[in-house]
Automatic annotation (TrEMBL):
PANTHER family: SLR8022 PROTEIN
InterPro entries in the record: Cupin_2, RmlC-like_jellyroll, RmlC_Cupin_sf
Organism phylogeny: Bacteria, Pseudomonadati, Thermodesulfobacteriota, Desulfuromonadia, Geobacterales
Gene3D superfamilies noted in UniProt: Jelly Rolls (2.60.120.10)
Domain Cupin type-2: from-to ranges: 41-106
Pfam families tied to this protein: Cupin_2
Highest taxon in the source lineage: Bacteria
Protein name: Cupin superfamily barrel domain protein
Length: 110
């Protein structure tokens, strides 16, 4: 499956450049989309987020810029640039931008 990101392969590029902040919005860019999993970069404006949901796979989140509150099973974790957190499969989680932030989401389906 093509994601339109072939130009990214084999090059060094600043991850933060791949998704830009937009006022009042959440922007995402899928970097890899394969049957086995996905890698997606998100940019959240301050106050934006994702409502509580579950996923059938563990999700690795790396904060690239800014600060987010990530809630897992009702417990809030403040995660800042340079930090990561794993959101376990089948456990409710939500995200909210304390300040605008960018995150890399890695989901492995196998």
């Amino acid at each position: 499956m093509s994601t339109g990101n072939e130009t990214l392969a084999g090059r060094a590029i600043g991850m933060s450049e791949l998704a830009q902040y937009q006022p009042g919005s959440v922007v995402s860019r899928t970097l890899i989309d394969k049957k086995i999993g996905t890698i997606t970069l998100f940019a959240f404006d301050e106050g934006q987020g994702l409502s509580e949901h579950t996923a059938p796979y563990d999700a690795f989140v790396q904060i690239v810029d800014g600060v987010a509150d990530i809630t897992i099973d009702g417990q809030v974790h403040r995660v800042a640039a340079g930090q990561m957190i794993i959101m376990p499969a089948d456990r409710p989680h939500a995200l909210r931008a304390v300040e605008r932030f960018k995150m890399l989401l890695v989901m492995i389906r196998a």
